[in-house]
Amino acid sequence: MSTPEHTTLTLEVLRPADNPHYIHTGLSAIYDELTLVGYYSDEQWEVHHLIEGTTTQHEDIEAPVLLRTKTIYGQTEANLIPAHWDTTSNTWKPDHEWHTSGGNHAHTSDSRYLRLIQNQTGHSYNGALAVYDRTKH
Question: Does pTM top 0.85 for this prediction?
């Protein structure tokens, strides 16, 4: 049986220098790089795989995230959500828990990432996105 391959983009984690309130758990606290594996919208929960990126072996993906967009008061925003591989549907899914921003961000200067954000939000954006990996219990 062959190992699945995924189209991915590597994102660098950015942490606040002197902020004691940033998240100390979650993917962005544990890993220096996150792997973008797909995207979805809060309006339509179907996860789409990346079309542009680097081919990565499934077992090499340690910190998968999805680009999530949501529209609030007519403005589309984007952030990053932890993901897991669903063996039943053979696709990436957002983690089941409710997440909020933990204070860390992720970014890459890769133009494919910037194009994806623009395609999903409808506007240009060249900054780091918040990583929503803090959980509320």
Answer: yes
